[in-house]
Amino acid sequence: MEAMTERQIVDETGVVQSRCETGDVLRLLADSRRRRIVAALNQGEDDWVDVETLRRRVADDVESSVDWETELHHVTLPMLDDMGLVEYDRRSGAVRCYRCELVQRVLEATE
After folding, report:
1. pLDDT-based confidence at 53, cuts 50/70/90?
2. How many other C-beta atoms lie within 10 A of the C-beta of residue 46?
3. What distance in Å separates the CA atoms of residue 17 and residue 8, rounded to the nearest whole number?
4. Residue-wise DSSP of 34-81
5. CA distances from 51 to 6, 24, 76 (A)
6. Backbone torsions φ then ψ of 31, nearest 5 degrees
7. Which is nearest to 97 in space by CA: 30, 58, 51?
């Protein structure tokens, strides 16, 4: 049984990849730039995206700067990977997005 504060993270076939804590999701999505990145990942037609494509998807919504791109590569994507929401391969620049119902609900509530 799933704890009240724990949510499933699933792949495109519905297989549970990991679990996340509600508090962690709320802390993650408290930052507007991270919300935009997660929303862009969740809106993609494919579960896999390269970092450059992700950067272009979000570029219209955030100020483009070296600091932002550094944060994407060195903070945000690794944070999402640690939480189990994405699989981030730094070498190839590929990002695989997993789905979490709680993340989607928080994103909808903050739009």
Report:
1. confident
2. 9
3. 8
4. HHHHHHHHHH-SSSEEEHHHHHHHHHTTS---HHHHHHIIIIIHHHHH
5. 28, 23, 12
6. -90, 125
7. 51
Count of other CB atoms within 10 angstroms of residue 65 = 9
Distance CA 20, CA 6 (A): 5
Q: Is 14 helix (H, G, I), strand (E, B) or coil?
A: coil
Q: Which of 17, 18, 20, 26 is nearest to 7 (CA)?
A: 20
* pLDDT average, residue stretch 86-100: 91
Cα distance between residue 31 and residue 1, in whole Å: 30
Instruction: State the amino acid at position 16 in one-letter form.
Output: V
Is residue 97 within 8 A of residue 88, CB to CB? The reply is no
Considering the chain, what is the average pLDDT of its residues? Answer: 83
